[in-house]
Amino acid sequence: MQKVALKDQVYKSILKEILDGKFSMDSIINEKVLSEQFEVSKTPVREALVRLCSEGILENLPRYGYRLIPVTQNEIQEIIEYRKVMEIEALRLSFDYIGPADIQKLKQLDESAQEAVISRDVHLAWERNENFHWELGDLCPNRYFRSSIKSALTVGNRYANQYFSSIWREDKPLDRSHTKIIEALEEKDLAKAQEILTFDIELMKAILL
């Protein structure tokens, strides 16, 4: 690994292993093992693990290691309801400011996300799904909405593996909600865009609960 932003590279590597299902709920994640695996010192590994703890993905077991925090049905329900409130309102606030360049960027992210889902790479699929929603939320002029949306999406890292595994196991057709949201934005139809965005967010609840 390169020394530039080493802690971020280690963070992404550990997160990828989590999303790929490399750790069970009973697994103890050990700094020493990870530092040897990634051939880095313990410092960037520790920093990455602390970050994952701050994001609610891991919990620290003093003198023992780290483990995944179980995801409850109630928590999934709450985060989905929270995302609906924040993302739908953010879209309303940003609607009049969305221009051709923004639409083009969303199209590129949508295409990239679809390719990732087809590849069946959990980490890549969730990362690109996040990127689309981050970009859509980032168009909102209210910085507090932008920050809240990003935090809510980060929580989704905890159940991304379960979400995509269920889709692929049941061989569900590729969801085109992002494409339809973009089409509604091009048509200047806010109500339609909000309706599709709501469906897109609630789809996770339908699959996980």
Automatic annotation (TrEMBL):
Molecular-function annotations in GO: DNA binding; DNA-binding transcription factor activity
HTH gntR-type domain: residues covered: 4-71
Database matches in InterPro entries: GntR_C (IPR011711), TF_FadR/GntR_C (IPR008920), Tscrpt_reg_HTH_GntR (IPR000524), WH-like_DNA-bd_sf (IPR036388), WH_DNA-bd_sf (IPR036390)
Coiled-coil ranges from the UniProt annotation: none
Pfam short name (any one): GntR
Record keywords, A-Z: DNA-binding, Transcription, Transcription regulation
UniProt superkingdom: Bacteria
Protein name per Swiss-Prot or TrEMBL: HTH gntR-type domain-containing protein
UniProt keyword Transcription, yes or no: yes
